[in-house]
Model the fold of this input.
Amino acid sequence: MGLRAGSSKIRGLVATEVDQRPRSSIATHTRNSGLLSYSDPTSQKIIGIFGVSEKDINYVSLKISCSTGYTIDWGDGTVENYNSGVEALHKFNWSDISASTEVTILGTVLRQSKVTITAQGSGEITFFDFHERHDSVPIAGPVAWLELTINTPHVTSMQDSLGGASILLTKLQRVNIISVHSSCNHADNLFYGCYNLTIVEFGFDTSQISDWRGAFYQCRSIEILDHIDFSGAGAGGDANAIEQIFGYCKSLKRVPPSFYDIDFSNLNTLSNTFFYCSSLDSIKLFDTSTITNFYRAFAYCNRLLYVPKFNTSSATSLYRTFQYCHSLRKIPKFDTSNVSNFRETFSGCYALKTIRKIDTSSGTSFYQMLRYCYNLAKIPKLDFSSATNIQLLFGECYNLLHADLSLLNPNFNASMYGMFYYCRRLREITIPSTVRPTSLQQTFQNCENLIKAPDLQTWDINTRYGYYYTFYQNTELREIPKSIFYGLSNTGNTDWYRTFMNCYNLCSLPSTFFQLSGTLGITRCRELFRNCYVSSVPTLTLSAVTSDGNQLSMFYDTRNLSDPVVLGCKYNISFYQSKLSRSGIVNIFNNLTSVSKTIDIRYNPGVAELTSDDRAIATNKGWTITE
Done:
């Protein structure tokens, strides 16, 4: 095959170890010596070894296309004839198989039956399908083929022949496909789900295969595929020809050299191509100039330290492209000018400390783009002017010091859920003050070093969880601007679970927060102010609370809080270590609902001044006082 324009085959101009690779089988595994021995068929025939279990129901189903029909010798004394395309069903019995054939596969003792499939008369086998589920098996499950040797010179397609979702050949260890027809160009999903396949052999030139989509998907034990020629991928005009090709090949040690021989100008997707190839530690540059979809192309490649500067000029989606590349140290400055989807692009890249300034001006979805980048300390000023989804954008970037969102659309009007969640070292946020979030749920949760919350216009927050966990564990927070609580005028903000919990340095709440007084149907407020040292809170009506179980710790250890007004409480409630005076405690007693619950008023200065009549106000309503 000659050189193609733009082909990486130009490397063939110099002698390298890769160029001199043999085309015969190269495998790090050898055939299991315990398997039954037989000679490879020299004519049209399929031979398989089936593992029969003493405990499992040993059903098997397959289908062969052959004009004259086909014959199966099941190896247990049963020989049956079938018409072309008719499903062959069989059940093996442990007692029918000789004990001398016993072999241990993946910790299970199996007896082996040698199955032989032939054409009747002069017929030609044109398709084989071992991916059939037996009628007596109600759900998808494993089928115990151990080995298959296939000599079928008239087969014109291998699509879904051995792999897929309806059954899984999880015990299959070796496959040798000696021949197929020269027109056979489909191997899509050929070995899909063959978890323990370690040896794959082809006796023909595999460059004739143009569609390898999903061929080795979930072949978790395959280590080396150097002997297979993938160079014809996409030649048949299928732009998805390498989608999922090596997905979940967790043991694959290196990219097959012939992969770089592919004419990538025929392709437009790398979706799942190297997904979860967690043993790969390097990958070479190849032509990606026509690729638009990089969905999970390298996701979970845990050992990759670096990636080349791929041509991403045509890319529109980098959805999860490098997700959980734990060891990735640097990101090249890709051309991302046409990318609209940055969802989870670098999520879980633990080792990244910074990223290059890339063009994000066309991006709309940035959902979790940098989440779990634990060591990311610095980011450039990225253009979020077209963003519609920024939820959890920086979630759990523990070491991020400054988040610059000055280029966010100043009229942004969508949820900011979890945007800075667990950014523990974050001290500064730059964001247009005209931004109008629709939710601040967990937005600043565990921002332990944030001193001042940014100005935001919150008129549109009108959802149950709008302020859920918003400032939880903001231990250095000293100031919340008034604008943060403009949305309190809306009656939909009913869940206030842990909103200010552990805000030790927050001494006061903005005046706008006091709009909460008696106007909203609060349904949950457990631990709302726990360990928060504000001096005053709005009047709180708790009659609508339904979601707090049996304990309201909303005022637990609010040591600077003087005499809050609490109406309609019907749950156990704690004012442990607050600053309640006698009159404040009596006022709380007066507003309790008549119900058999407990109120904790320990370590409050006014407790010592309570009279028996004061206590009777609560106890006569059924309350038990802990003091």
